[in-house]
Design goal:
alpha+beta; FAD/NAD(P)-binding domain; Glutaredoxin; five-stranded antiparallel beta sheet; 12 helices
């Protein structure tokens, strides 16, 4: 019997598998597709944007350099390793197709931002992400099996079982990471609620006979929206109430008719090589856990793909769940730790759904949508407006309520750097929590007595300590406790016990 069975070998399931494998759990991943490769995962249709928060997750697990290499992205993010002040982002993104100006971001207004290798988002493709995570998972002893379709889920107080093709896969926990049409979600009886779609979206790789009729970039039109990110790659949104049936493959004639309508041109598609459709249906489960079954990623929440928020939210789910589930498996989790997964991540998912809905409202090709567009354009023409948008798109807005008034607690930890050059991100590669102590001139690396296997201790002066004396960082990179110039040892130990369990005797 495995510790954990993960259903779904997409980026979220694989990232979670790596987190659990890193913590020494026995993990089995079941994937219904017989092959890992797919033309929909490669360029151009597989292109996705990773937020700064997701890039940070790969950085903290030592995978960022490999991901950038596989994605064809220059690894120049730490070009000035001696920088003390954060730099402005080179790209921000868009809201409802309205592109933001990075020069308008007020870097000084961003909370606890420090320079480091993972300060902004990047473009990648699913094939690069999944290949990297699969290789990492294999190295950590994870068993990945393709061509396995789960048809039933059963559980009791001690075990959960995923049934597939006459086989039973038993584990202490089952996690559904099997996408928007999640079998695990339905089989385990999760309630899934939300709003109906406003549009049908399409993405395709096609040969365009008269490509000069289509401009590059985002274009909101009186009849919809189209996006041309690169030659032959076209996305479009048709506000038909989500009427196109996703069970049928869109034909060239259908795609051409929609493209002509939303672009207002007589453009001709000579050939469609690949195409798929989607909607903006926004749904979320009411909880992310039922007994010994949990959900992460699109299995727990679906919405339109505007801004790539689905992949990024899923990676955040996996990063949050992994260490908590591992602590539960190994028996040192404090009471209620696993329940904090839903408590922390459900509001984030709900916020992303509303962010998606707001963009759809602004894109509607009617007087109401155009009125909203005017307001948004005015806002993003200001420094405060663009900075707010950047916080939402980058993930900097995320803060968990951990019961502390300290403004850093509950946020992703800044990449604090000691005078010897050690960065916080580099200290987190083994998946342990980190205690940084800036109250001493001594440079020490070790463990905290009582939490030796769970908590790394590092002491020394920092290049920018943000007026802190000490910081306790959870394994997912979230600040659990922060002390001022004279750290409170008892407060630190209470926080460590709250998140990492009672100290070992």
């Amino acid at each position: 019997m495995h510790d954990v069975v993960i259903v779904g070998a997409g980026p979220v399931g694989l990232f979670l598998a790596c987190e659990l494998g890193l913590a020494g759990c026995s993990v089995l991943v079941l994937e219904r597709e017989p092959e890992s490769r797919s033309p929909f995962k490669a360029k151009p249709l597989g292109m996705r944007g990773l937020s700064a928060a997701s890039v940070e997750a790969f950085y903290r697990r030592g995978m960022l350099h490999q991901l950038r290499t596989a994605s064809g992205v220059p690894d120049d993010s730490d070009a000035d390793p001696d920088a003390h002040e954060p730099f402005a982002p080179r790209g921000v993104g868009h809201f409802a197709g309205m592109v933001l100006d990075p020069a308008q971001v007020d870097v000084a207004a961003l909370p606890y931002r420090l320079p480091g290798p993972a300060m902004e988002g990047m473009l990648t493709h699913l094939e690069a992400v999944e290949t990297l995570l699969s290789e990492q998972a294999y190295q950590l002893g994870v068993d990945i099996r393709h061509g396995v379709t789960v048809s039933a889920i059963a559980q009791n107080d001690e075990v959960a079982v995923a049934r597939a093709g006459g086989h039973e896969y038993a584990a202490r926990w089952v996690v559904g990471c099997d996408g928007g049409r999640s079998a695990v979600r339905g089989l385990a009886g999760f309630e899934f609620v939300g709003t109906k779609p406003q549009f049908t979206g399409y993405t395709m790789h096609a040969t365009v006979a008269d490509s000069e009729k289509l401009r590059s970039g985002f274009h909101l039109t009186p009849t919809g929206m189209y996006l041309r990110p690169s030659e032959g790659h076209i996305a479009m949104m048709d506000f038909d109430g989500g009427a196109f049936d996703r069970s049928q493959q869109p034909t060239r004639d259908h795609l051409q008719a929609v493209l002509r309508r939303v672009s207002g041109t007589e453009v001709t598609l000579s050939e469609v090589h690949l195409a798929s459709s989607f909607t903006d249906r926004a749904m979320q489960t009411t909880t992310y856990r039922r007994g010994r079954v949990l959900l992460a990623g699109d299995a727990a929440h679906i919405h339109s793909p505007l801004g790539g928020q689905g992949l990024n939210t899923g990676i955040g789910d996996a990063m949050n769940l992994g260490w908590k589930l591992a602590a539960t498996v190994h028996g040192y989790a404090p009471d209620g730790l696993l329940d904090t997964y839903t408590r922390e991540r459900h509001p984030i998912g709900a916020g992303v759904l509303d962010w998606s809905r707001a963009q759809v409202a602004a894109m509607r090709p009617d007087p109401h949508g155009r009125a909203v567009q005017g307001v948004v354009r005015d806002l993003i023409g200001t420094r405060d407006g663009t900075t707010y948008m950047f916080e939402r798109i980058s993930g900097a807005w995320i803060r968990y309520d951990l019961g502390s008034e300290h403004p850093l607690v509950g946020r992703s930890a800044p990449d604090l750097r000691l005078e010897d050059g050690t960065r916080l991100g580099d200290l987190m590669r083994d998946g342990r929590g980190v205690a940084l102590d800036f109250s001493t001139d001594r440079c020490l690396h070790g463990s905290v007595r009582g939490w030796g296997s769970r908590l790394r201790y590092v002491a020394g002066q920092a290049r920018n300590d943000l007026q802190l004396g000490a910081v306790l960082v959870r394994p997912d990179g979230v600040v659990a406790w922060a002390g001022e110039r004279t750290p409170d040892r008892e407060a630190f130990e209470r926080a460590a016990s709250q998140w990492l369990g009672s100290p070992e005797i």
